[in-house]
Amino acid sequence: MNYTRSSALFVKAEQVIPGGVNSPVRAFKAVGGIPVFVKEAKGAYLYDEDGNRLIDYINSWGPMILGHAYKPVVDAVIDKAKKGTSFGMPTEIETHIAELAVTMVPNIDKIRFVNSGTEACMSAVRLARGFTGKDKIIKFAGCYHGHSDSFLIQAGSGAVTFGAPNSPGVTQGTAKDTLLARYNDIENVKQLIDANPNEIACIILEPVAGNMGCIPPKENFLKDLRHLCDAHNILLIFDEVMTGFRLAKGGAQERFNINADIVCFGKVIGGGLPVGAFAARNEIMEHLAPLGPVYQAGTLSGNPLAMAAGLAMLREIHNDKELFNRLEEKTAYLHKGIAEVLQANNVVHTINRVGSMISVHFDKDPVVDFDSAAKGNNETFKKFFHGLLNEGVYIAPSAFETWFITDALSYEDLDETIAAVGVVAKTL
Ligand code: PMP
């Protein structure tokens, strides 16, 4: 495929935007090469600036669960835009989407809308601290909760010591309040709780991890976390920015039948516009301003265009009784097809999948946490990525990302993808 125009556009962008992109992973640093500039997208396909058609397995990193330019969402946005794009005052549509979200998601009474997943997680942690009166949080290595300071933390020296900043600009003072645990390792979490008695406000995690590839929670991991939280007066925060309205109508809480105390949303809930949200039962949400003392605000929060897109999206998901079955079946079909062609070509691999989240790892061992994800063969992944791109299939430009399956994919698209994997597998 020819990427002449994308290359030229990237050079221009680099002059005025750091690294040519507004979010780092887009720059293809992990895989090398020139990022593809998108011109438009429809259904399961991206059309780039060079006129290439790509089957899209990223779908804006999750939101486009029904495909690109989905008509009911686009129509809702156009209709709203004609009536004014922002007021900074209450609008009825905010109540409509909140009512629907509260109906769909288990165990929440109230929801507050923000503008990104980062804001949702940052605010959820503040609320947990305000509610419990404690400062420390536990997060898991390899889980991503956005780029706010408390989350840009890596493991310090020794399993039970404080975290350390993993970006310049994050202070030691912030880092000392974030404790790092291994995903799927409940004993590690117990150690951290024992070493910091009565100090931990919350445990935040992706109930299915999607930022180190797709990693399912081990059996009982979520249940054991719930019990630990109950025993130690710690709030359990599910970051459902990826899993919310994707793994089930009610997200991971519904799929695994575990209640979290605070739930964070992003991606699907905005239908492709900038929306995040966090939600909890009344007892917790009453601590939030203006009801309570925990401050949180936003000029564009509840923006009418964003709410129109989100409401149209949630309505479609709510009304389509077969959506999650179809997504599950399509993803299982893809999983089986890819596994067969990789196996037929003797490519060492592990595939992880939960619902419509799936990832391919070039390693023979199970991928259950950050360390096992990191030991996959990155050179093979790079070849896999570029090979697929050349065949017109767009997956995330990093081995640490999950693929997001959209309902717009037809079985012909899936067959085309599996055939492309077959072509690429011969070169690995
Ligand atoms: N949480 C999770 C689980 C995410 O995957 C992401 C983004 N990929 C975020 C939070 C941050 O969301 P945003 O990029 O909208 O700030």
From TrEMBL:
PANTHER family found in the cross-reference section: GLUTAMATE-1-SEMIALDEHYDE 2,1-AMINOMUTASE, GLUTAMATE-1-SEMIALDEHYDE 2,1-AMINOMUTASE 1, CHLOROPLASTIC-RELATED
Cytoplasm found in the keyword field: yes
Provenance organism: Snuella lapsa
Biological pathway: Porphyrin-containing compound metabolism; protoporphyrin-IX biosynthesis; 5-aminolevulinate from L-glutamyl-tRNA(Glu): step 2/2
Leading EC class: isomerase
Coiled coil residues, start to end: none
Subunit comment: Homodimer.
Catalytic activity: (S)-4-amino-5-oxopentanoate = 5-aminolevulinate
Assigned protein family: Belongs to the class-III pyridoxal-phosphate-dependent aminotransferase family. HemL subfamily.
Entries under InterPro entries matching the protein: 4pyrrol_synth_GluAld_NH2Trfase, Aminotrans_3, Aminotrans_3_PPA_site, PyrdxlP-dep_Trfase, PyrdxlP-dep_Trfase_major, PyrdxlP-dep_Trfase_small
Pfam families: Aminotran_3 (PF00202)
CDD domains assigned: OAT_like (cd00610)
Ion transport recorded as keyword: no
UniProt protein name: Glutamate-1-semialdehyde 2,1-aminomutase
